[in-house]
Amino acid sequence: MLVVTSTVIVWAAVIHAGGGSEDYLTWAVFATLLVSGITTLVQTYRVGILGCGYVLVTGSFEAFIAVAATAIERGGPALLAALVLSAGLVQLVLAHRMALLRRILTHTVTGTMIMLIAAIVMPAAFDMLKTPAGAPAGAVPASACATLAVFVFIALFSSGAWRLWAPFAAIAAGCLTAAAYGHYDLARVFEAPWFGLPSLSGHPGIDLEFGTDFWQLLPAFIFVNVVAATETIVSGISIQRVSWRKERAVDYRAVQGALAADGAGDLLAGLLGSVPMTTYSSSVSLAELTGVASRRVGLYTGVLFAALAVCPKATALFVAIPASVGGAYLMVLLSMLFVFGAKILVRDGIDYRKSLIAGVSFWIGLGFEHGLLFPQYLSAGWSGMLGNGVLTGGVTVIGLTLFLESANSRQRRIETKLDIEALPGILDFLGDFSMRQRLNEEMKQRLEAVAEEALSALVEHLGPEAETRRLRMIARVDSAAAELEFLAGSAEGNLEDRIADLSGDVEPSEQGLALRMLRHRASSVRYAQYNDMDVLTLRLERERS
Length: 545
Prior knowledge:
It is a single chain. The protein folds into three domains: 2-131 and 187-197 and 204-321, no CATH class; 350-400; 409-541, Heat Shock Protein 90. The chain contains 20 helices and seven strands. The protein has helices at residues 2-18, 22-45, 65-96, 107-127, 139-157, 166-180, 187-191, 212-242, 252-272, 282-290, 295-309, 312-319, 323-345, 352-369, 380-386, 389-408, 423-436, 441-462, 495-501, 510-521; strands at 58-60, 277-279, 410-417, 470-477, 481-488, 524-529, 534-541. The chain has a five-stranded antiparallel beta sheet with strand order 3-4-5-7-6. A two-stranded antiparallel sheet has the order 1-2. Strand 4 and strand 5 (481-488) form a beta hairpin. The chain is globular and about 80 Å long.
């Protein structure tokens, strides 16, 4: 209900702002719901390399409103379709090369981005609680309070299957309260037909001339699309953390699949004349609130999207929900999303550097979003881009993270075959690295011991595949710790899951003993799998004097 309403309202705002026709609006709503349903199904069940295998609902993205409206105004819906196709290609490229971003997408970055997204969207929820002209006195606060009270009460004091009814019961309570005040207009629902397809004359076609307007608007579309990709990456990481009863390591191949599915959805949207697609972060908060992450939810959602695309009466029913009810409902979801981002931010501990990066980036994003930072110096051409808080805040947190990395890190690398016979060369490399970085003998021996056991664990984990793989090992040091990063070919399974499983009172096997020693020798052990490589990162804190 939340996504359908948001999708329809966003598209109406884009088309009306750009001066689009009613025929195009009818077609666009149909195409958007259809693409949302198909992409949600692909995200849930994976089709080849497309999809993450988790419930990530797909819909339109509010960040595209400004650039999409400008495209319609300057070149019509056909120009918008060409730009959406280009956005889909960018998403597919980012999905293929996402492994290059492995050091950027830290918990500091992802946690800050989730908190920032929730904070930026929250004012929209507050705006929905404003009393419109001509509304009955008391209707808006009464319906909003009824929605909020029922939602919170059921979520706090129920469990299991009963908790699943919190969203539906809250919306029903809000709508009934609004109807009692005469604030729930069902006239448009009664007038709409049960079944119907839009006229093909509403399809805008695709502008393939690639004129001046296309090239002028393309950079803005790419920038906003990177923001959407960041949200998809964050959602792909977050949905894995809330979808399992027992915590598992993040599988970055699933995140790549989520990004690739978004790209394919954009390509389909461009062909059908729809709006750019992205995953909704509310999927994460809904899964955490209800405790339900079954793929059947994604199946039902995708099928219902496709069914609603050809049912104008059902779509009108969603649109008729009073804004006050939707605003109160959205407040709960965004509140949970904000706290979830904070939990990710402090997941690996937080020092003053991470606190500074997260805090400054968060408030810079909000400042630009609300036009409070240097508005007099922003020209009209840049205001649409810099006025997006997700973009400015995201660029800030990523830029500060990279700056800290380059300022504090001194690194060297070696490339060799992934085989235990490569150990002597690796040890010589670490000896030279320790001498150049003036590490003491104790730290040098710790690095060598961890490297030996990490190499053995990787060779054993990859099995016969290790014989055909190359290994790149990167050694870096900063003021607090030394770090070893092993990059090898991808394989099935997840090494970090096995490391985490050894934390209990388990009788270790020979393999388990090696992993236990690795886990206890290093200050932290991280393992990430991508479609094109496996990355094992070991951090050794320096001894404090």
